[in-house]
């Protein structure tokens, strides 16, 4: 089978190599899956660079989120068991962690439903306890993680403010349903948020960016607001001033979604059931901006690493010459 492998850490476009390799052999409690679609996540780029908290042994195949097919024909969502990731024709995954792919979504959309939407659901509902009528601010609102939070916020009845970088991404955020869109490249984020909220600020802030975005969040968070920290796509990890959280009376909430798989897996299944219901009634629909063939995976991962994409890019092995087979 064909699979992308990383033999030496570096930038995805240089480190990933498409090779002919043997199909992976499932271990105890694992199953072999035919990859129908593999969603690209920012951690895939970080793993190529050797900068992610999970460091699979070299060589490894990236791709942490797939829609796959079991040997008995079931369509499932899974997190492949590294080092046999999803940017390949076949992957392996833990049998106990397989989730049914929603009928309302195609393969690429189903692959994109998992990590980003689970993170959004846990961040907004489990950690921040977002309520209908509250104001939600989402950084990088047109990205894969941000777009999921925007849709989930709207589904929960929140007023959503999206912060993006560039006119194209601003248009995507509007189409996603943001009530207010702020282009950080041309607008003063702090001033624009205060104007949009009458000076009150946002009740919940969803931050997958870190760095300057986090600093801005502390200046526009409302009384008893909650800042949910879900990642550091900017590459800069902030050092929060806890005295500031004290005097402004806001909460800083960390979210590592992966921990729920070991600490409380029943909640992951419950979340998936909620997401499946939302997808069935059209309240959420993963934004898949591109579907690319397996041969184009390295370039696509590099573009995600460079922050120039919107929504999700799905690698679909059955695509030929960029068109559905």
UniProtKB/TrEMBL annotation:
<dbReference type="InterPro" id="IPR051397">
    <property type="entry name" value="Zn-ADH-like_protein"/>
</dbReference>
<feature type="domain" description="Enoyl reductase (ER)">
    <location>
        <begin position="11"/>
        <end position="315"/>
    </location>
</feature>
<dbReference type="Pfam" id="PF08240">
    <property type="entry name" value="ADH_N"/>
</dbReference>
<dbReference type="InterPro" id="IPR013154">
    <property type="entry name" value="ADH-like_N"/>
</dbReference>
<protein>
    <submittedName>
        <fullName>Alcohol dehydrogenase</fullName>
    </submittedName>
</protein>
<dbReference type="InterPro" id="IPR020843">
    <property type="entry name" value="ER"/>
</dbReference>
<dbReference type="GO" id="GO:0016491">
    <property type="term" value="F:oxidoreductase activity"/>
</dbReference>
<dbReference type="InterPro" id="IPR002364">
    <property type="entry name" value="Quin_OxRdtase/zeta-crystal_CS"/>
</dbReference>
<dbReference type="Pfam" id="PF00107">
    <property type="entry name" value="ADH_zinc_N"/>
</dbReference>
<dbReference type="InterPro" id="IPR011032">
    <property type="entry name" value="GroES-like_sf"/>
</dbReference>
<dbReference type="InterPro" id="IPR036291">
    <property type="entry name" value="NAD(P)-bd_dom_sf"/>
</dbReference>
<dbReference type="GO" id="GO:0008270">
    <property type="term" value="F:zinc ion binding"/>
</dbReference>
<dbReference type="InterPro" id="IPR013149">
    <property type="entry name" value="ADH-like_C"/>
</dbReference>
């Amino acid at each position: 089978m064909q699979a992308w492998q990383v033999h030496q850490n570096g930038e995805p476009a240089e480190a990933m190599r498409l090779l002919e390799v043997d199909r992976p052999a499932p271990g105890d409690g694992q199953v072999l899956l035919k990859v129908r679609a593999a969603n690209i996540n920012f951690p895939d780029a970080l793993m190529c660079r050797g900068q992610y908290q999970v460091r699979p042994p070299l060589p490894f195949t990236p791709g942490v989120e797939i829609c796959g097919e079991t040997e008995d024909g079931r369509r499932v969502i899974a997190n492949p068991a590294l080092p046999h990731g999803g940017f390949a024709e076949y992957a392996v995954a833990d049998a106990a962690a397989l989730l049914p792919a929603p009928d309302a979504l195609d393969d690429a959309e189903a692959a994109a439903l998992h990590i980003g939407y689970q993170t959004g659901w846990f961040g907004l509902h489990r950690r921040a306890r977002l309520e209908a009528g509250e104001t939600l601010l989402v950084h990088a609102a047109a990205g894969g993680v941000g777009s999921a939070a925007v849709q989930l916020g709207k589904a929960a009845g929140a007023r959503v403010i999206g912060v993006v970088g560039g006119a194209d991404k601003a248009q995507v955020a509007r189409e996603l349903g943001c009530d207010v869109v702020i282009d950080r490249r041309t607008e003063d984020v702090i001033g624009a948020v205060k104007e949009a909220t009458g000076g009150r600020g946002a009740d919940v802030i969803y931050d997958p960016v870190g760095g300057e975005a986090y600093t801005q969040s502390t200046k526009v968070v409302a009384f008893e607001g909650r800042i949910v920290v879900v990642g550091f796509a900017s590459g800069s990890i902030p050092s929060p001033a806890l005295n500031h959280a004290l005097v402004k009376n806001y909460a800083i909430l960390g979210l590592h979604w992966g921990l729920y798989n070991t600490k409380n897996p029943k909640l992951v299944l419950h979340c998936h059931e909620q997401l499946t219901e939302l997808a069935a009634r059209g309240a959420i629909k993963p934004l898949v901006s591109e579907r690319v063939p397996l041969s184009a995976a390295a370039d696509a991962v590099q573009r995600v690493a460079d922050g120039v994409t919107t929504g999700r890019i799905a690698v679909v092995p059955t695509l030929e010459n960029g068109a559905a087979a």
